[in-house]
Structures are given as C-alpha cells and as structure tokens.
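This part of the workshop introduces the protein records we will be handling. The question running through the whole workshop is how a given chain folds. To make this concrete, we reproduce a full record directly below:
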Amino acid sequence: MDSDPSPARRRFDPPLPAPSAPPAVLRRGPLRPGAFRSPAHEPRTAVVLGRWLGAALLLCFATGLVSHLLQDPPGWLVHRLPSRPVDGYRVTQGLHVVAGLAAVPLAGAKLWTVYPRLFAWPPARSVLHLLERLSIALLVAAVLLELFTGLLNTLQWYPWPFPFRQTHYWTAWTAVGALLVHLAVKAPVIAAHWRRAAAAPLPAASLPASLPAPPTAPLAARRAVLTATAAAVGAVTLTTAGQSVPWLRGLDLFAPRRPGTGGLPVNRTAAQAGTTAVPADWQLAVDGPAGYRIGLTDLRALPQTTADLPIACVEGWSADARWTGVRLADLLRRAGIPAGSTVRITSLEAAGPYRVTEMPAAYADDPLTLLALALDGRPLTPDHGFPARIVAPNRPGVLQTKWVARIEVA
C-alpha cells in the first residue's frame, strides 16, 4: 500500500473541490448563483414588508386572544368580563378577521422578497445558523397554517381531523414565539434598514459564499413591489370587511357573509341542531331556590324589553337586530337566584359544542341581556332560536344560546 505518495505524485493530483460547493450538476434552479435577478430581493424591501406583516399578525393575535378569553375565560377572569361596550366583541372580532385576511397578501409578498435566502448554499454553515434556519421554518409554517385555517373558518369549512379552535389558538402562540425569535436574530439587519436613508446592502462577508450580495434595489423597483402589495391588501380589505363594517357593505363582494341581505345570517340551523319540532307544551325551566317552569304564552305576558343588539360571530361577520323579550335578570330574581350569580344555560339541541354555556354575572345581571322571544318585531323562527334564545351585549355569537330549555345557577 502506498500510504505516503511522493511530492512528484502530489503535484499531479487534482485539487479537491471546496466543501461548501455542490457538484455543478446539482447547482440548478434556485441553487444556481444568480438565479434571482430582481433587485427587489433586498433587505430594505423585506424590512418594510415585515413591518406591515408584523403589525397585521400582532393585531390578529391580540384580537384573537380577546375572543378566546371571552369564550373560555380562566377562573380568575370569569367575574371580570365586561358586558359593555355593547359592540365590543363585534369590533375586536371584525378587526381579527380583517387583519387576518390582509396578512395573506402581505405574507406572500414577504416570502417572495426573502425567498432567495431560503435557497442559500450550504443550508447551514454552523450550529447557530442551523438553529436560525429552523426557527424561520417554524415561523413560516406556523403563519401559513394559521392563515390557512383561519381563512377556511370564515367559510365554515373544516377539511381536517383536528379541532379548529384549539389548534388555531396554540398555533398563534407558536407563530408569535417564532416571530420574537426571528426579530431577535435579525435585529442588526432590521436596524440597518429600518430607515430609508440608512438602507444599504449588507457586506458581502455576512452572506453565504455561494449567494453574492444583491444589488441595491432601484427606488422604482422597490416602490413597484410595495405599491402592488398595498393595492392587494386594500382590495382584499375593502371587498371583505363589509361583513363586519356596516359602512363598507356596498363593497362586500367576496366575504362569505353579507349581513343585511336576506335577513339575519345563521351559522347553525334548526335542522342541523335537530330542533325543528319543538314540543307544543314546551316550558322553560328556571332552577333556583324558588325554581319554576313557564310556558311561551306566560313568557309573552311578562313585561317585555326591546333592545338593539348586534350578533357578532367568530367568523368575523356581524349584524344589527332588534330583539324583544324578558330580561334575564328578572327571570333569575323570580327564581330566587341572587345578583352576582353565574348561570348555566342549556339548549334543546341534543348535541353540539355549545349546547350548554355558562354566563358570568356581569352578563346575567345586565339589563340588556334578554331571553328573546321576537326578532325585528316578529316571533322567532326555528333557525333563530324559537321558542326562546339568549341575546347579550359584547358576547360571541356562539354563546348566544338558541332553543333555550333550562336556566340554572352554575
């Protein structure tokens, strides 16, 4: 075995290829040097788009957190939930869906701007660089999953086996955590390009050897990308926000719901809930120290209250309606249930995630919270909760229980 070749032999040995350069046959498509020619693939454009996208995602996260806490409040918050302002949930959930829809074109534009970096070679230059790349992969995956599931939720289409609400909630936390890590890692780049005058190409030493530094984007190219993105966001917002913003209803072209057209929308019909055949002898049971049962005729004979309250749904749509019925607080006091009590409301429907709901005292004692018997001056229809339903201010639509059968202390 010749384990020590002579100097003469070593002179004729071919040089070894650089460890960071793959064979030429593998350098195709996005791995090819110079594959990305647009001057808009540069840090300043990415920073501007990142600011817009970050604002949309953080607004979406904050308003989504409000919705989650209203639907599933932890014990310490149950007695602190406010029933006012009346339109509170309508505003926060409307902003949630509007911000989420606006984030779709923003996320696409941001990915287009930075995707040359996704194909940098080698994929990882060190352990720290590998962790950075993995955090970016987690961020992209979490944001895309969040936007995808949220978009299909507005259509009430769930083509997946996992529960939407819990998955959407925890994915949001994952996305925000990954976003904070990404901002910490990219802080020097963001600071260098935050202001227009300070924007400059990164030094070549900070870039992978196989990916040359991009040229400074001409102002016209950057403006073209930002203008097109802003136009896309504006178009998406103006043509979908009308489902929750009344003065934009005339532009509501692509939103899944168009409140005000064909009456008040419903998410769950009586046929879906199995409540189309309400017994003729239906009676509402109010359980308490002086519990009682009362039929529809007697409920209508009690003092009636009329209130203009919106129905605001988690899918983002909302609509105003005029409700007439008996104040819930009056029914509770008649049963000997004291003020400040949390009550449990049970529906006639046989099954469903919101068949039984709990109402904190702030809502139960509010004079605008009604056991509604009529909508816009007419008796309730089966789809709207006949014979009686709950309507309360600043409350998610899924908790405005329809087809009420029982009310009791929780």
In short: Residues 88-118 form the longest helix (31 residues).
